[in-house]
UniProtKB/TrEMBL annotation:
Protein name: XdhC Rossmann domain-containing protein
Pfam families the UniProt entry points to: XdhC_C (PF13478)
Domain XdhC Rossmann, residue spans: 47-183
Cross-referenced InterPro entries: MoCofactor_Util/Proc, XdhC_Rossmann_dom
Annotated source species: Paracoccus sphaerophysae
Gene3D superfamilies in UniProt: NAD(P)-binding Rossmann-like Domain
Length: 195
């Protein structure tokens, strides 16, 4: 491309005062222009959402415009057909945890507590997750902690219940909004891996 000559700009009275010190006279200053491509955006962090029920679908929708790559994972085809965005139908959801890249985030909200525990334990045992959260209550977290201890997994990094700061509102979209904020806050923190 052809290089453009510097543009010549007339300075305001304040600008003339500033440039007087540097020997600029006449109230004019040259300004060179150049195009520099913007750096590419960082790769989107994968957010694997296990469970395509009402809250899972609402969370995927809440995360859709954000700089993450959300994907709904479920063993129930009828739930995934109601979803928009990327989905994975699998009979072995914990295999998706094993196949995920380092630094992924995991949200566990299936229809089965035993499956939730299996997926959460698998995600925590990787030790390279950006965030691991599970829908539930304090008693579900306590049950998971006992399960994790038997499996030799540290339950401390698990966020459960997710969206705990939400008012006692059970609407899926409200829970999803608070969970999405929680996930994004964790992902945008500089030292985010669970190492």
């Amino acid at each position: 491309p052809k290089k453009k000559p510097p543009a010549d700009f007339r300075l305001s009275p304040v600008g003339r005062e500033i440039f007087k010190k540097d020997g600029c006279c006449g109230g004019r200053a040259p300004l060179a222009r150049a195009r520099h491509p913007a750096p590419p955006p960082p790769p989107a962090t994968p957010v694997l959402i296990f469970g395509a029920g009402h809250v899972g679908r609402a969370l995927a929708a809440a995360l859709a415009p954000l700089p993450v790559a959300a994907r709904l994972i479920d063993s129930r085809d009828e739930e995934l057909t109601r979803a928009t965005g990327p989905t994975t139908l699998t009979a072995i959801p914990e295999a998706e945890v094993r196949a995920a890249p380092p630094g992924a985030a995991y949200v566990v909200m299936t229809h089965d507590h035993a499956l939730d525990f299996l997926i959460a334990a698998e995600a925590l045992s990787r030790r390279d997750a950006a965030w691991v959260g599970m829908i539930g209550s304090r008693s579900k977290r306590a049950s998971f902690a006992r399960h994790a201890a038997r499996a030799g997994v540290d339950p401390a990094p698990l966020v459960c219940p997710i969206a705990a700061t939400a008012p006692r509102d059970k609407r899926p979209e409200v829970i999803a909004a608070f969970a999405a904020a929680e996930i994004m806050a964790a992902l945008l923190t500089p030292a985010r891996a669970l190492a």
